Each structure stands twice: as C-alpha cells, then as structure tokens.
C-alpha cells in the first residue's frame, strides 16, 4: 500500500560504505518454466482477475511483517526495507533474516488456500533491488549482496502460483530514489533498465499476467514522459509478445485514462490501475458507513465506468480494502457486519465495471484485522468463494451442457444480430446489412473464446474489447472487405462473449439463491 520506499536517506548517519558481501551460498535453483504458449497465456492475461496483493514479501512494510522477521532487527523503530537493513547488526545478519523470510512468509500452502477460495490472481509487489547488484543505486548500494538470493526466489513464487492456476501481476512497488528523488534522471535510468530485465524475463512466462511500472507515484508533468519512455522500453525488450503493461493513475483516473487512450493505439495492451481506499483521508472520516456505501455504488462506479470507456475498459482496482475509519461507524453498530456490507458493495461495484481487483493485502503480521484477506475470509467478511474468479466446476458443467445440447448459440446469435441491424439502420447506417458477415464472424469468435475460457480456465473473459481487437487483426474476412466496417467484428465479438457471460451470471445467481 505504501508508495515507493520511504525517503529516510537524511536520517542515515554518514559512514564508510561497508565491504560488499560475497555471493550468497543459499541461492536456490531458478525454476524451469514451460515454453511460452500463446493460448495458455491468453487465458491468464485476458480473464477476469479476482486477486489479492502479496505485500511485504519482496519489499518490506513492518506492519505486515511476521514477528520472526521484526525481532531480527536491533530496534523496533523501522518501517520500510531500507529501515530494516540499517537496523540489522550486520549485512550477513540482514541477509540471513531476509532469506528466511522469503522461504517462509509465502509457501505452496498459501497458493493452495487462495485457489480454494476462488482467487485466480495475485499482485506481487517487489523492490527494484531484487533485480541484481548491478542495478543498485544509493542508498541501497551500501547493502550489496543482501538480496542475492531474492531473484530466483521471486521466480519460484511465480512458478508456485502457476501450479495452482494463479496468475501473477508483478508490481515494481519500490523504485530508486523514493518519491522525492525518483524524478532524477539517474534514478529513472536505473528504473528503465530494471523494467527491461523484468519484461524480457517475465513476458514468456505463461502465468505472468502483467508488469506494473510504478506503484502510487506522485502526479507530475514528468511522470507522463516517464510512463511513455518505460512503455516503449518494455515493448522494445520483448517486441514479439504483447505483455500487458499496467500503470498507476497517480490518484487522477480521468487524467491518466485520457493519457493511455493514444498510447494503447501504438503500444497495445496497456491497463490503468486505480487504488480505492475510504479510510485514510479526513474527508473519509467525515462520512458515515452508509455514505461510503452510497459513494462507492454511485460516484466511484460511474467514474470507473466513464473512464473505462475511453480505454477499452482496461481499468483494474489494484488495491482495495473493506476497512473504514472508526469515525465512520454508526454508534453501537456491529463493526464486522458494517465491514461485511461495505465489502459486498465494493465487490459488486468492481465486478460490474472492471475486469480485475486485488485485495490489500493477503496477510499481515498477525492476521487479526480487516486489512488481512485471511482474517476477512475466516470471519466471513469476504465471500467464502470468489465466483467471478475461479468459477465452481458444477456451474462450468451446467453451462457447457446448455450450449452443447440446445439451441443456445443460434438463439443468442439471432437476437444479437437482429438488435445490431435494427440499431444501426435506424441511425442511417444501411450498409451494416451488407457487411453483417463481419459481425457474424465476431460473434462466433467471441462465443467460442468465452466457452474456452470457461472450460479450460473456469473463468469469464475480462479484457473483452482488448481481446476483440487482437482477434480482429487476425480475421481474414476483415482483410478482404471494407475496412470501415471492421468495427462490426468487435461488436459481434463482444456480443458473443456477452451471451456466455449472461448464462454464467444467471447460473451463479441461481446457485447463490439456493445456498441462502
């Protein structure tokens, strides 16, 4: 949740640079990932994402760290990764403590649990320093060698997630220079180099769903230029794979959605990440829980929807929580019930207007408060099963039986085609009829793709318009007919996906009612 690494350089006492550590003796083997498979990757990167953040694994925040790691520092007065390193008695001690943390904080059991609750994606914050010694900038160059074993462990976490069908959004959460010094050209240059290494490594990994350039940067004129430079560098690093690139909205969704719009035309799959919290600001404290619920279900929903229309609906909520400030609680109210109701409204909103959301955070130091997904799951604050993530097998089978044994496809196609022709001819677009084959082919592809996502990944399609554009570029009919009517393919594709979506949502709704 924190932005870049806390800027505490001025608090560090000047001293000579310590002697660098020799290479760690505890670097694990890097995993052997399966070869890049475009069809598998499509499932991971374009499906709807129901996720959590794995905070404080590769970039520390003390309030999330387990007691075992916290107690290894000489003082309790630290907050960030840099603080922790300065509070350890030696470089070797810091390295041993972190290697133990990386091995034990997140394990295979965690991914097994997440998958069992319907979570199909995680957002994984990392510090730039795990990329290797050659990238270290002041003040982290003082601690060269401590993170030697982090890179392979980072890759092993991705491989571990893959075993459970979980996608990984890699978030460069901490960049050189922190917020104050990041604008310096030297720090931006290092960041670009780190992003190039991340992109070239991650793009061919089937369950990597994207790379986020920065986390919660301060809005400025130079940020836009940096984003463009970083996007260009990532595309240059892996020109043959359209790795999804995520950028944070710097708390200005309208501005950055308008910035992304032309970028998408040139650089493909680019997604806007917005973070939605309702407990930190003074204005949040002044609102009651009831007012927050109304705000999320109206103003916030409309804002995401409106800005999403500009950028192919490529907006996710990369961080959110059910937490409200105590001042928002009604007097004498059941706190858990208020949080539960607020969380339900948030989830309904995210599911209605964007293709992905990631709870902050998966686990905390004691998992005894609402910031912890584990706590919320245990207390019934969040759903026991995220059905818009991994869809239950019984629902998958019901939908497959419906489309295979009945006239569902033809009925939905006829209805969609009729509505399409009536709508556009009533607005003077008479040629739509003559080029309806493009709509028809789009519907066929969209319907088949949505079925494949359901059958092979137990998922709904998330980034529908983005996926439609890719299929349109490969469609032979569009290449041989009038290009000005190619938009009909996209409309047909989205209608085909919608036909399967409608069946899924109806079945989920019926299943929910039967369980209450």
Automatic annotation (TrEMBL):
UniProt GO molecular function: glucan endo-1,6-beta-glucosidase activity
Any single biological process term in GO: glucan catabolic process
InterPro entries: GH (IPR017853), Glyco_hydro_5 (IPR001547), Glycosyl_hydrolase_5 (IPR050386)
Stretches that traverse the bilayer: none
Superkingdom, taxonomy of origin: Eukaryota
Listed GO CC annotations: cell surface; extracellular region
Annotated coiled-coil segments of the chain: none
Keywords: Glycosidase, Hydrolase
Cross-referenced Pfam families: Cellulase
Record-annotated Glycoside hydrolase family domain positions: 98-339
Family under the similarity heading: Belongs to the glycosyl hydrolase 5 (cellulase A) family.
Descriptive protein name: Glucan 1,3-beta-glucosidase 3
